Amino acid sequence: MKSGFTITEMLITMTILLTVILFTIGLLGRAMITTAQSITVVELSDDLLKTAMELRKEIIKAGPRVEKINVYPDKVEFFVNVPFGDENYYPKEYKYSIIYRDSKIEIWKENEKKVIATDISTCTFYSQTSSTVSFFIGKKKNNIERVFYVSVSLPNVK
Predict the structure, then answer these.
(1) Kind of pairing between the strands at 104-109 and 144-153
(2) What Rg do the C-alpha atoms of the chain give, in angstroms?
(3) Pick from 37, 38, 97, 104: most CB atoms within 10 A?
(4) How far apart are CA 59 and CA 158, in angstroms?
């Protein structure tokens, strides 16, 4: 008897070893793709949540003093009447707007503009009642899109 492997035993061993290596590489490749997608989803969700909470904060901030709200699909306008807001102490109506345009969300106070979010793929405002402002906000990256829905109630608005 000779010591060592025969050709048949060697081929069987190499086939099993090659199968195990290819299976391991396949699993690692799939895990890396899944991990990249998961990271993208988490980043999108985090960015959207921050933007949605910033929008919610701005709507609530305008809410206690607002007398009238106009809601359009691409913007929300708040009108605030200040009793002694004019130079001659007459009442003055101020306009405060949140506008979605060119994939940015902007806040306009009279003639001042502040950008609170960029790279937004969709943002739609609507109102089911006169004292509720709701919006969908979405962001897209690498063919993955996340959308959040937020509704804010302003009980003092009639």
Answers:
(1) unpaired
(2) 29
(3) 97
(4) 16
Q: Which tokens go with 23?
A: 């299976």
Taking only the tens place, the pLDDT of each residue in 79-122 is 887 777 667 777 778 888 999 999 999 999 888 899 998 889 99
In contact, 150 and 142? CB cutoff 8 Å? no
In 8-87 the beta strands, taken as DSSP E runs, fall at 68-72, 75-82
Please name which of 119, 117, 125, 113 lies closest in space to residue 152, comparing C-alpha atoms: 125
- The residues pairing with 115 across neighbouring beta strands, listed in sequence order, are 106
HSE-CB for 60 with a 13 A CA cutoff: 10
The domain spans of the chain are: 48-153
Using DSSP, how many helices (H) and how many strands (E) does the chain show? 1, 8
Residue labelled with tokens 């979405």: 138
Q: Which of 119, 127, 125 has its CA nearest to residue 145?
A: 119
Residues 6 or more apart whose CB falls under 8 angstroms from that of 149 comprise 134, 135, 136
**144 pairs with which residues across the strands?**
141
DSSP 72: E
DSSP 104-146: EEEEEETTEEEEEE-S-SEEEEE-SSTTEEEEEEEEEETTEEE
